[in-house]
Amino acid sequence: MYLYFQYRDGWLCQFLESDSKTSLPRKPVLADLEGLIGLVGRSGGLPNLASRQALDQAIVKRRGGIFLDLTPEQCARLRKGGRARGS
Description:
Elements: E1 2-7, E2 11-16, E3 29-30, H1 33-42, H2 49-61, E4 63-67, H3 72-80
Antiparallel strand pairs: 1-2, 1-4, 2-3
């Protein structure tokens, strides 16, 4: 799963399937940077220092993306759509 994010009065998040083309229905808007970093961390997107550095660079640019390592349950919730918890 791939997470694309962009800052526009909050961190707009868009989840893409492994084909990097198919967008999932759930598109949370996170109010602050801590929310974005927490989401990425809970989703397995920070397995090493290089990943964290790439995330930090994208945050400075106010847009970017990162691959996530989600559980089957997390994927199912994203595919279901609706309002994301904490958004």
